[in-house]
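Hey, sorry to bother you again with one of my protein questions. A protein chain has come my way and I'm curious about its shape. It would help a lot if you went through both lines with me. I owe you a coffee for this, so here goes:
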Amino acid sequence: MTAWRLQQQPDSFTLSDLGGEQVLSFDREGRLLTWYDRGRYDRGRYDRGTTYKRALNSRLLARRREGEVRLRWDVPAGEVPLVFGRMLEQVRDAARDIRSPLVEKVLEWTPEKLLAERDRFAAAYAPVSILPPDQYFAVVVQATRGCSWNKCTFCTFYRDRAFTVPPPVAFAAHLNAVKDLLGEAASLRKSIFVADGNALMLANQKLLPLLEMARQVFPGRDLHGFLDVNTGVRKSVLDWQELHAAGVRRVYLGLETGHDPLLAWLNKPGSADRAVELVSDLKAAGLSVGPIFMTGVGGQKYAAQHVQDTLKLLERLPLGQGDIVYLSPFVEHGPYAGRAKQDGVLPLPPPEVMEQERIFRQALKTTHPQAKVARYDILEFLY
């Protein structure tokens, strides 16, 4: 029998065998969060193992290293119950060694019950399409559905739904459904993310009551959200100060590039000048910002000007402590592919995409040393 240990954190707990071959983490409801499975033993050694991450709707993301190659994939729907079943076998083994109500809680989560979380998630949420990486463990509240622009050629996150603003009574029902879905696991989620795309564009007279409702249901949490540069009501510094007083702390901006012709080619409204104005207003109101830039976007045709003008824009932005600059490797999908083929825009080779990231990071170290810089890999997203 394998020897196991139980480690308790305030908002989660972990089961691990003493050999380090199995490490499983769970929320306070006993639902799987992550599972590291060291894997099979072959020719005197273990393989490098697989890490599974479970979303609230029981989607499973897996990743593993093979040599220098990092593999990641969505576990096919037909295989998910098998993975959950194998996970439960490990917990049953741990239960022989550890007597704890927490372990007993996990044993209640059969594969069938975990899969049924899909229906509970669908009752609480429209699809949660994307979040900034530092908000993956936020409480997501959908004050809007969809994206107010929804025409960028590179983005398909919200193409399945029209932009709508649910009335307050529907938003209240949504908040209660989210609270019921999370249960005790809400304590693991230390912030509130106001979704969907561009939710913060709502006029304050509509937005502020929704924010207050969210903080009443999930108290003690700061608020965050997406905003684009050019749609919705243009807020004054006083408007942003009002939102700061209501608990908003960081605004995430998909700036993508500092090269205006590339923005136009991507069918994204805005400009470098407008980005500077907006970030300046947000900072003047006491808010932190999370500008997002893509590396590799625009392929070989736009590469030189993308780098040159993005560096100019980064230098102009008034960034400092509390701000996060995200660099997101471009993933080609949606209408972008057709437009690129039509206009002869060839993709940038991966080493050159990495070089763009290196250049931007190095520049930010010099111009804005207090701001954080992080990669934003959309293929790693899970909620």
The chain has two domains: 4-117, 125-380.
